[in-house]
Write a structure and sequence with these properties.
- This protein has about 425 residues and is of the alpha+beta class.
- An eight-stranded mixed beta sheet has the order 1-5-6-11-10-9-7-8, sandwiched between helices. The chain has a five-stranded mixed beta sheet with strand order 13-12-14-15-16, sandwiched between helices.
- Helix 5 runs parallel beside helix 9.
- The model has no long low-confidence stretch (mean pLDDT about 95).
- A hairpin with an 8-residue loop joins strand 9 and strand 10.
- The protein starts with 14 loop residues before the first helix and ends with a helix.
- The protein binds histidyl-adenosine monophosphate.
- Histidyl-adenosine monophosphate (HAM) binds next to strand 6, strand 10, strand 11 and helix 11.
Length: about 425
């Protein structure tokens, strides 16, 4: 027997999954976003140059596949670089380009609760907008989605500000001085990160390192005048829009392209993988990937599997789409199969949900099966019904039954 690949899962009921996507589509259209779709396979280099060569995602978690002619291809580990590539390649002129897309992404991680190797993201980007008010509006949009559209209450928003390129350069020097003094106490990987991509030390999961970094200098205490003003404005605007947040000075996010605003929505009820949505501003990525001009941008991606974990316990409070009323046709003998086919076809043609029990059995066990299938109406076609051009309709909810002419069936059911 074949088994699914580790870290993947089968979805046997997509009601809640589709609910999230439908709510997102409605919500994002209210904020003037357009739905797009980009490929799941992309050039490996695209991710090396954007997500970052030293990030965990690129160094340890990539699913690489080899194409023809030594082409290096990967399964996308996130969607942002793919959207930026599409923006540049399709020469989009109209900015801000507010787009969203959703679908599978792949990361070779150690599977655990809420952490998969294939999972789904709902990815949103606003490309080409410099104003910090855009960040406040974007974060409010996410908060309203989680709270009002999905009914989540048990979560918090963490924010931080990474400043401009110059700020980060100065901060990196300060951080290096700090790390020089604790060099012996940090893990081997952090010693490497310190030399290659110092901000990544904050992504370290080692408890000893995390404890040490609590005393590290913070970037928000070392911002230039204009970034400091933007940081203050962002917090003011979030408060104005009634968004509750907590400042987390060590939040740097695990991907290289962020500048200025970064944020994560977290929930304790998820356990160790507490972040269910992450994002931030990235002002240089478009030019870094070959675009003519810099396009200051902001984006985020909630993980759909983590939203599902949060929604499962409150499912009964949600208004989920109901399954259509099932009309189950029971041909008593094989001779009634053709009539059953015709009747089912007529019902389906009139937009009613119909199915046939074609395998035949005693009427008693067919009725039991109908019950299990959740049929609201059972349409019995026996020799007598066939002869008299009638059908016996049994209402499975109240137990009543009537025999009517086949020709009157649709009108009667629609009533
Ligand atoms: P990220 O924080 O790497 O950001 O991932 C976003 C979300 O994907 C996480 O908050 C989490 O819910 C989900 N996620 C990540 N890894 C896994 C996993 N192994 N299993 C299940 N869910 C997972 C990004 O990917 C950025 N591209 C977001 C962004 C868009 N920034 C700007 N624009």
């Amino acid at each position: 027997m074949f088994k699914k690949i580790k870290g993947t899962q089968d979805f046997l009921d997509l009601t809640l999954f589709n609910f999230i996507i439908d709510q997102a589509k409605k919500h994002l259209s209210e904020y003037n976003f357009t739905e797009i779709s980009t490929p799941i396979i992309e050039p490996l280099d695209l991710y090396k140059r954007s997500t970052g060569e030293e990030t965990e995602v690129v160094t340890k978690q990539m699913f690489k596949i080899s194409g023809q002619n030594d082409e290096e291809i990967c399964l996308r580990p996130e969607i942002t670089p793919s959207v930026i590539r599409a923006f540049i390649e399709n020469k989009i002129q109209q900015v801000p380009w507010k787009v969203f897309t959703w679908g599978p992404v792949f990361r070779y991680e150690r599977p655990q609760k809420g952490r998969f190797r294939q999972f789904n993201q709902l990815n949103m980007e606003v490309i080409g907008s410099d104003s910090i008010a855009q960040d406040a509006q974007f974060i409010k949009m996410l908060d309203r989605f989680f709270h009002s559209k999905l009914g989540l209450t048990d979560y918090a928003l963490l924010i931080n500000f990474l400043g401009c390129f110059e700020d980060r350069k100065i901060f990196q020097l300060l951080l290096k001085q700090f790390l020089d003094n604790v060099q012996q106490d940090i893990c081997k990987e952090c010693q490497i990160r310190k030399e290659r991509n110092i901000l990544r030390i904050f992504d370290c999961k080692n408890p000893q390192c995390q404890k040490i970094y609590k005393d590290a200098p913070t970037i928000t205490n070392n911002l230039c005048k204009s970034c400091d003003a933007e940081w203050e404005t962002l917090k003011e605007e979030l408060s104005l829009l009634s968004v509750s947040y907590m400042v987390q000075p060590t939040l740097v996010r695990g991907l290289d392209y962020y500048s200025k605003t970064v944020f994560e929505f977290v929930s304790d009820s998820l356990g160790a993988q507490s972040a269910f949505c992450g994002g931030g501003r990235y002002n240089q990525l478009v030019s870094q990937l070959g675009g003519k001009n810099d396009q200051p941008s902001i984006g985020a991606a909630p993980g759909i599997e983590r939203l599902l974990l949060l929604l499962e316990p409150i499912k009964s409070q949600l208004v989920l789409p109901q399954k259509p009323t099932l009309h189950l046709i029971l041909p008593i003998e094989q001779k009634q199969n053709m009539l059953a086919l015709l009747l089912a076809d007529t019902l389906q043609n009139h937009g009613l949900c119909a199915d046939i029990l074609l395998e035949g059995d005693s009427i008693k066990s067919m009725m039991r099966k109908a019950n299990k299938m959740g049929a609201k109406y059972v349409l019995i076609l026996g020799p007598e019904e066939q002869e008299q051009k009638t059908v016996t309709v049994k209402n499975m909810v109240d137990g009543s039954s009537i025999t009517i002419l086949q020709i009157d069936l649709i009108d009667s059911l629609k009533k």
